[in-house]
Amino acid sequence: MKLNDYFQIAWDQYIETTPSAKKINDLLSQRGESVVNDHIAFRTFDNHALCMDRFIEFFKQYDYEVCGDYVFEEKKLDAVHLENKDKACPKIFISQLQNNNFSKKLQRLIKECVESEDFDFNELLISGSKNWHISYDQYQMALEESEYAAWVLAHGIRPNHFTVLVNELSSFSGLGELNSFLKENDFEMNTSGGEIKGNPAVYLEQSSTMADSIHVDFDGETHQVVSCYYEFAKRYPIKEDILFQGFVTSSADRIFESTNKVIDK
Ligand code: NI
Questions:
Q1: From ligand 1's centre to the CA of 117, what distance in Å?
Q2: What is the whole-number distance in angstroms between the Cα of residue 42 and the centre of ligand 1?
Q3: Ligand 1 centroid vs 219 CA: distance in angstroms?
Q4: Cα 163 to the chain's mean position, in Å?
């Protein structure tokens, strides 16, 4: 499979769970913009079958390499970002739950789900799904401890979000103007830690919509659960003509909260 074919599949999987992203891209296209993707983010567990090393192996075959690693202490996550030799390709951001820092009950649930059947990781990633069954009660149990764990258990291995590179938009002066445009068009923005996370001094500003929600099947019962959000990033040069390509943990910490939403059932 060619890398661009995978990106198309990943985008289709993403807009299935995040219809807002497609609507926003359509609105931007109507203004004459063409959207450039800064990064695709994935969430996973620290489990040999699904851990971030499996993602790294998958993307290495397409000339990606690890260019940064991060720790989110409060959320108990580790993360890496990958860059391609071809700078036109989006970066890949992969985070993984520090399973061992959660209750034995949650660890058992994750292990039972993830190890329920043998599978080929690459096939699972390309299918953008999960090969385990989880009941709604189990989902709720996971949600009490970790919104992140519940998200992966409900949605499986699929893109968590894509990200508009604001530098490449020509009709907005910056992130503030883009956020106003989105709000005028009735999109709800994540305001945790302020609408814009980061600043030019850390070379990165980010904002995001609040996550959409979709219906997910839990062992034959359908329930509405939080899905994904769309992110927007403006990068600043670290030296002449070279934009910062990394991530800022204090900002990403707040962006993760775009999926902290209470669903009216
Ligand atoms: Ni992101």
A1: 30
A2: 9
A3: 30
A4: 9
From the CA of 252, how far away is ligand 1's center (Å)? 7
How far, in Å, from the CA of 220 to the mean position of ligand 1? 32
126 Cβ partners below 8 Å, 6+ apart? 1, 6, 9
Which among 180, 259, 250, 235 has a CA at the least distance from the CA of 38? 235
CA 40 – ligand 1 centroid, Å:
7
Q: How many other CB atoms are there within 10 angstroms of residue 251's CB atom?
A: 21
Beta bridge partners of 215: 224
Q: What is the pLDDT of residues 1-19, one digit of tens each?
A: 999 999 999 999 999 999 9
**16-20 long-range contacts, CB within 8 A, separation 24+:** 16/214, 17/155, 17/158, 17/212, 17/214, 17/227, 17/228, 18/161, 18/211, 18/212, 18/227, 18/228, 18/229, 18/230, 19/212, 20/187, 20/209, 20/212, 20/229, 20/230
pTM: 0.94
- Is the Cβ–Cβ distance between 98 and 80 less than 8 Å? no
- The residue with tokens 């769309």 is 230
The structure tokens listed for 161 are 């979000």
**Contact between residue 161 and residue 18 where contact means Cβ atoms under 8 Å apart:** yes
Sorting pLDDT into bands at 50, 70 and 90, what band is 265?
very low
